[in-house]
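Sequence, please.
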């Protein structure tokens, strides 16, 4: 596997490249910031290596890392050979797209759903208003998810690059 240092450094370079390129293409600074942030979040806090307690990503969560315990119990760390990744369901944290979607869904169940309930109670929002907010920011949310996935895909690729192999 690639070292944590390699994952962090290359992920942050990817964030800058993706952010700057998107600003160049869209001429939209907020779009570039969103993509940059998504790749940084994916690299530092939501990467596939959250499946092991000792990983740098897990350690960054500090005491909150305990929230990922059930996730870790149901996932195995990726196999040595890329060809074996799809052989077992437990390796899914290192599956492209699915791994990210599952982590986001997990995070939503733990933080998102309770936050929505608390926010709707505090601000007196009803479901129609919440749906309206989701529709308003849905596009941006999808772009943020795509940026998180970009970092995750890069993580998986770099785990299996011959020159980044490290135990
Ligand atoms: Zn990994």
């Amino acid at each position: 596997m690639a070292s944590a240092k390699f994952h962090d450094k290359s992920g942050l370079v990817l964030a800058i490249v993706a952010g700057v390129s998107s600003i160049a293409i869209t001429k939209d600074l907020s779009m570039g910031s969103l993509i940059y942030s998504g790749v940084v979040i994916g690299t530092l806090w939501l990467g596939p290596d959250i499946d092991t307690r000792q990983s740098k990503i897990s350690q960054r969560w500090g005491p909150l890392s305990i929230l990922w315990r059930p996730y870790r119990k149901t996932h195995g760390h990726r196999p040595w050979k890329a060809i074996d990744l799809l052989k077992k369901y437990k390796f899914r944290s290192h599956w492209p797209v699915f791994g990210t979607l599952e982590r986001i869904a997990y995070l939503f169940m733990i933080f998102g759903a309770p936050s929505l309930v608390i926010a709707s109670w505090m601000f007196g929002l009803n479901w129609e208003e919440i749906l309206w907010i989701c529709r308003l920011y849905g596009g941006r949310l999808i772009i943020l998810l795509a940026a998180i996935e970009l970092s995750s895909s890069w993580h998986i690729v770099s785990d299996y690059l011959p020159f980044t192999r490290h135990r």
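Residues 4-164 form one domain.
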